[in-house]
Amino acid sequence: MEPIIAIVLALIGYALGSAKLINQGNEALVERLGRYHRKLKPGLNFIVPLVDQVVMEDTTREQILDIKPQEVITQDNISVEVDAIVYWRIRDIEKSFYAIEDLQGALTQLTTTTLRESIAQNTLEQTNVSRVEMDSAILEQLNNITTDWGVDIIRLDIQSITLPESVRKSREEEQAAVIKKRALITEAEGEKEAAIKKAEGTMASVQIISQALRSNPDSRDILRYLVAQDYVDASQKLGESNNAKIVFVDPANSTEMFQELIAESAITEGHGKKSENGNT
Q1: Pick the residue with more confidence: 95 or 187?
Q2: Does residue 243 sit in helix, strand or coil?
Q3: Per-residue pLDDT tens over the stretch 12-45
Q4: pTM, entire model
Q5: Which of 70, 149, 67, 146 is nearest to 108 (CA)?
Q6: Strand, helix or coil at 61?
Q7: Domain residue extents for the chain
Q8: How many CB atoms are closer than 10 A to CB 35?
């Protein structure tokens, strides 16, 4: 019985030693007598004990590599601090193990160097405006190298570009000046438009009054009343102002001014009618 028990125990030990369970999302590498033999997929796998050895098991899922803030000098000699994140995954676990000694360290150094070179070729303004294009260009450069390592760089995000305090204050002052300039331009355009509308309204009023006076001479008494009323309203408004200077005008004499305006309007209309008759 003892030999049978020993054989059973040996078989159990062999089975336990040869069985390798690989979790979903992972892969493993097996070497036989010191040389690469095969790749283990997720699930239950069997190897030859003492002959085969699992030398590596790693995930093939997407991973995150945080690039620490880096001091970078732009093309226009402005020192900025850049923070980035790299999303990557192992595409070929065999290459990732045999082609490079320290995979994550190599990815960190490669990304940092490429990021510095890319920003150094652009001005600060170009870096801020074309950040998406810069991410794509850096991503392409990284994948050209990491392909030999069995790694895919999925995405690179430049999270922040921190400016020096002096540059930041200068940009804020410049932006504030631009906003103030726009506000002044808008205000000036509004005042100009209001002045034009007011002038057009005054001209229309004079034309209506002159036409009414020509068609009905008795309406001059109404004109005198309106002028006197405007005079009273204007005097009241000027009196309420602390800095106002009041100028007294005789409403009766102001009628002469309107008569002159009416005469000029009549002459202008006469010339207009003669021109029309001549054209016809």
Answers
A1: 95
A2: coil
A3: 666 666 788 888 999 999 999 889 999 999 998 8
A4: 0.55
A5: 67
A6: coil
A7: 2-58, 63-163, 170-279
A8: 6
DSSP secondary structure string for all residues of 2-42: HHHHHHHHHHHHHHHHHEEEE-TTEEEEEEETTEEEEEEPS
Token match 């190298």: residue?
Answer: 145
Q: What is the pLDDT of residues 204-213, one digit of tens each?
A: 766 766 676 6
**Residue 206 near residue 265, CB atoms below 8 Å:** yes
Length of the chain: 280
Helices in the chain by DSSP H: which ranges?
2-18, 93-98, 103-120, 124-129, 131-146, 165-215, 220-240, 251-279
**228 confidence band (pLDDT: 50, 70, 90):** low
Condensed to tens digits (0 to 9), the pLDDT of residues 103-120 reads 999 999 999 999 888 888
* CB atoms closer than 10 angstroms to residue 69: 13
CA distances from 267 to 124, 127, 208, 211, 216 (A): 67, 68, 15, 12, 18
Half-sphere exposure of 144 (CA within 13 A, CB side): 7
Beta bridge partners of 84: 67, 158
**Residue-level pLDDT at 164:** 67
Q: Which residues contact 171 (CB under 8 A, 6 or more apart)?
A: 163
Tokens encoding 278: 């001549």
Q: Which CATH superfamily is domain 63-163 in?
A: Band 7 domain (3.30.479.30)
d(CA 204, CA 211): 11
